[in-house]
Design goal:
Blueprint (H helix, E strand, L loop, with lengths): L1 H8 L5 H44 L6 H32 L2 H19 L5 H4 L1 H32 L5 H6 L3 H17 L4 H14 L1 H12 L6 H8 L7 H8 L1 H32 L4 H29 L1 H14 L1 H9 L4 H15 L1 H12 L7 H18 L1 H11 L5 H22 L11
Helix pairs in contact: 1-11, 2-3, 2-4, 2-6, 2-8, 2-9, 2-10, 2-13, 3-4, 3-6, 3-19, 3-20, 4-6, 4-10, 6-19, 8-9, 8-14, 13-14, 13-15, 13-18, 13-19, 13-20, 13-21, 14-15, 14-17, 14-18, 15-18, 15-21, 16-17
Length: 448
Amino acid sequence: MAQGASTHAGSTGNPVVDRAEARRALRRVVIASVVGTTIEWYDFFLYGIVAGLVFNHLFFPETTPLMGTLLAYATFAVGFIARPLGGVIFGHFGDRIGRKSMLILTLMIMGVATFLIGLLPTYASLGVWASVLLLILRVLQGIGLGGEWGGSVLMAYEYAPPEKRGLYASLPQVGLSIGLCLGTGVVALVSLLPEAQFMSWGWRVAFLLSGILVFVGLYIRLRIFETPEFASVKAQHKEAKIPIVELFTHYKKNILLGMGARYIDGVCFNIYAVFAIGYLANQLHFPRTTALLGVTIASLVMIVFIPLFGSLSDRIGRSKVYGWGAVITGAAAFPSFWIFHNTVDPLWIWLAIVIPFGIVYAAVYGPEAALFAELFDTRVRYTGISFVYQFSGIFASGLTPLIATALLPLGDNQPWLICWYSLAVGLISAVSAYLIHNGRARAIPAAA
């Protein structure tokens, strides 16, 4: 592995040829990272989109409507609980063996689990075992994605020129918006079927498509090399013996600040991309396609703004872009939910989703990968960013639909407690980014 990377990134004696080869290598890595993360996020968030529309009826039918929705979102949350396990497992071997081989494994695990969900018998056919199998497959999805994200962004980050790492590390992040766009778009299309057909077999099509996407992703990922930065650590035999132990020995403060910064990312995404879809359809009785199309449009807009804010972080600083993005993202819930409750015009609904989610949220998600990567040295970086991103995902992401659903009745079925929660989280993340910027978190040199 190290030898292949060394040959690939090594000098030919011709500076022009070397620069051209380096650009080609970087381009292949970026394409492989974006395609892979697109597939992984499509798989993972497809579950979240369908959870409040289908799974509450087909896998938890012997409950009240509210309890069925809560149970469906609980299985959604389980995926986030499994993600830190995947992050630790694949982070360990990614820091010991290499980034590339772990990315191939994570893609296969995620794709197979999603494909099998599309074939799963419902509660009516299999009883409680249908719910149990759904839970197991969701856990496998979480383990796969837990190792995927860290490896994908590190491939781009560690290949990129130092002055453009914010931009290039943001490009795999675009896979989230493309994957979400594909997920909501496919569900929106099959939602055009008559309700009986959609609930019977239409929703399954979206999951079965994952099988095709995985073959494409594997073909691309098998053609890339290990990052020169990790290959150098490997060649010098400086790999961390037990990365997770070294992480908690030297990087406790970095971990806490990273998780605090990550908080608004998970809350915002899951309020708009998961909770709002069921909320608009079930609580406010908008057509399901209205919410789905709003999230799809926001995802398309985000494709442009994620690298734009990633590049901006290279020029004015990651923490500055991230901190302001966190505050505005948290506050944006107030006007968005006000619009949800005071219009019947789909255009206004779409604007209330697109502006906070497609544009403002990108100021957080764009610089995030480089911000977290710079908290850790190469030897433990895969484990470090995976742990920060995935462990914080339990409370930041996985619990958000549950929290939002529970806050509704506490607020007399009005959304303002959800909005205050969003604002409080935005302030926590902004303070964490400020502390990172002011040197409260430092990466430990490889010799430590």
